[in-house]
Each structure stands twice: as structure tokens, then as C-alpha cells.
Amino acid sequence: MMDISPKFSYNKSMKGKIVFLVLSFFLFFIPFSFSQTDFGYLEEPEEKGFFLDYAYFSENGSVGKEGKGDNWRLELYYKIFNHKLTFVKDQDRFKASYEIEMVLFSKNKQFTASSYDEEYMVDSYQETQSYASFLINQIDLSVPEGEYKLSFKLIDHNSNQVIESEKKISLPSLKGNEPVFSGLELARSVKEDQDSSKFTKRGKEVIPSVSHIFGDSESLLWIYFELYNLNIIAAKDYLLIYELEAADKSIVFKDTSRTTLLPLAAQVFYDFKKIGISEIPEGSYTLRLKLLDKKGKDRAKAQKELKIEWSLLYQVKTDYPKAVDLLRYVALGKELKELKEAKEEERVKKWLDFWKSKDPTPDTPENELKDEYYKRVKYANEHFRIYNKEGYKTDMGMVYIKFGPPDEVDRHPFELSSRAYQIWYYYRLNRRFLFVDVTGYGEYELQYPYDGRR
Q1: What is the distance between the alpha carbons of residues 73 and 58, in angstroms, rounded to a whole number?
Q2: Positions of the chain with pLDDT lower than 70, given as ranges
């Protein structure tokens, strides 16, 4: 069996790594390159390419002695996509070098400042240009309660390009006897950690979702938080409520239960909360956590904004014909026929069974083929849409979904009898594809025989 499991390395950062899948399409094998993306490739609009976020936790994992309070461990997260960095050849690999400059202001005065030099290595030139590959990094600061403004700069040493961002940061007081939530860390994944990376929390690796955009094929929203000043004996009398509120103020998700938090220290609890979002429509939401005492009084609150996009199961349940049509490049004719003819009550199961049958690693939670396929569909829809035709239905979309990104694109905007054309080269497959703009308005059609094969 081929090794197609995601591989991560941590060298001051977490980054998406390219691995290769060999998948069967139309009775011949086509290599799929797979980038681990965060919810990545489905998650981030490519025009931005950079995100900044934060959460905060008691610095010592406890509250201050005799109510004196404690500093917060302010965790700053940043995420940058490869195409926003400039790489140079470094022996057999490619290296980006950049500097982080941060200034934290309190009451318009500088509170603290720091800078860090970082390096980021990738294995191939294709990765350096990728809109799907990225790095996520974390920087920790010790900060007391208060209101702050963060000024953040990323300086690319190879191009002198500067990316700037600002954040307002509010850190509550840990003093007193009232329960206090930590910051809410929205996570793209939570799993057992054996390497003790900088993303480790309570024996688990928690990779932050820096953009707060969810809706990949896993359709899961993870939350990590801590709760302070809560008496361990009285904890059983409290209610902990999770809510997702839509822009129209409707509640699309609510979970109410007695506190099942895990004790961390005296008066300190924590939890990893997993919320399934497969049946929640796309849109902007507010996540709220509320702690209620036995009289129903609010004792502590926390909230964070997020977006849900591209929920596959939601599409299957709400637009089944479209969900089946999207499978045109991965399903055989008889498989499409069976899916199209499925009874309404069987549709979700049939769709899930279809992808289960295609899973190259059925003994793992991931389905790399499904993840990669929908990433390519997403990319095709974003880049190759013409008029009223979705990108995955175009010729360019078809080739991209079946073969992945080309190794080289030769563009000729005003040639071939005044018609623009492009040639996509796939050197690893010894194939090339010729597309001609037949209308003059960006509608590129694949020309046959495009590389001597029909």
C-alpha cells in the first residue's frame, strides 16, 4: 500500500506537507498531490492569505493565591499561505526567511515589544507557489489583565514585503471569587500528542483555526477552554451552555448539560468540546458559552465569531442532485446511476458508503481521497467559473480536478489567430493539455487530441 497519510513537521511552526495519492480514474491511475490544509484550502480565501488570532489562559494553570490574581499566558497565532512568502533554493529544498515584529500597547503607551527571526522549509517548487499549503505558528507572552492593542508585522527577508495586522485584546481579571472563562481557542484538529509540540495542551495537540472558518469534510468544530474560580464541590450544580447564534439571531445549535469539565487544579477546570456542524447552513455565527448556577443566573460568559462554509453533508441533505453531480470525475457510471436512483431516506448512507469504498486508508479517520477531491472542486469553482457555468463543469476545472495543479502553465493571451490559449504541462505524467479561448471572453475549451491520447 502507498503511504498517503498526512505528515507534519514542527520546526518552530506547523506546516502543510505534500504527499502523493495514486487514485483510479477511468481505468488508469492518476497521481493526486495532497496538501494538508485547514481546514486550510477550503478554509481561507486566497486573496488574503494571512490570518492573526489569539487566546489567553492562566499563566501557571491556576488562579492567584488568596484572590490576588495571576498573569495571563497570551497565545498569539498566525497563519500564512506559501504563496505570500518568497522562497530561495537551499540545496535540495526551498527556504523562506522572515521576521516577526510585535508591539503591545496599553493606554496608547508601549507595554512590550519583541521580534523573532523564523525559517520555513518546503520540499518542492510547487509548494512554494501553493495556495493550499501554509504554516501556522504560535507566540506566547506573559500579560496582566487589561485592554491592549497589538501591532503585528511579518517582514519577508527575501522580498522585503511587509504584512501588517492589528488586534484589540481584552484580558479580564482573575481576582475575586466569580468564575472566569479563559479565551476560547477554536481548533482545526485535536489529537493525542506524543511529540510535546508548542501546540500541546493537556496531553493533546491542539492546532488553532486561525481564520475561524469551518466546514471541511470532517464537519467538526473543536473548542478548547479553561474555567477558573469554580469550586470543585459546587461545580456539579452549574449548567454549562454552548450556543451557535446565526446572524438573524436564531439559535442553530444548543447543548445544555451539567458541568462535565475536567479538574486541572484547585478551582480550575478545562474541556475539549467537539461540535458537529454538518447540518448547519453556511453563514456567520457567534459561539457562546454560558455558565449558569442552580438558580439559573449567569455566572460567566465567553464568545467568539466564526464562519461555516462548504459543509458536504449539509449539501447532500439539501441539494442531493448537485452533491451527486460533483462526483462526476471520481465515480463510475454505475456508481452515479445508483446514487441518483437512491431513495430519499437512503441518500446520506449511499453517499457515505460511496466515499467509504474509495477510502485509501480505511483504518484511519481520514479519507485522503475525499478531502483532496473536494479541495480541487473548491479550487476549480473559485478559479474557472465562466458566466453561469460553475468551475467544476468547465474543461479547465475537469482537468484540474482529475490531474491536480499542472507543473507548468504556458500562457499566450493574444495568439493563435487572435485567440488566447494556454498549455498545461504535467511532466510527472508525460502529458499536456491545450485550452483555447473560443469566445474571447475567457471560456477556454480543451482541444482534442490534446496530447495524442483520446
Answers
A1: 6
A2: 1-48, 61-69, 131-132, 194, 216-219, 233-234, 257-261, 264, 310-311, 365, 415-417, 449-454
Helix (H, G, I), strand (E, B) or coil at 307: strand
Q: How far is CA 108 from CA 74, 149, 154, in A?
A: 19, 8, 22
How far is residue 189's CA from residue 285's CA, in Å, rounded to a whole number?
19
Segment holding 214, helix H or strand E: strand 213-214
DSSP state of 148: E
Which residues are CB-neighbours of 134 under 8 A, at least 6 positions away? 15, 16, 37, 38, 40, 44, 79, 80, 81, 82
Determine whether domain 37-230+264-278 maps to CATH 3.20.20.70: no
Neighbours of 265 (CB within 10 A): 15
Residue of 383, 391, 387, 356 whose CA lies nearest to 370 = 356
Please name the residue that has the C-alpha cell 446572524: 247
Non-local (6+) Cβ contacts of 452 within 8 A are: none
Distance in angstroms (rounded) separating the CA atoms of residues 76 and 54: 4
- Give the Cα separation of 28 and 451 in Å (integer): 16
Neighbours of 65 (CB within 10 A): 8
- Report yes or no on whether pTM surpasses 0.85: no
| pLDDT for position 318 | 82
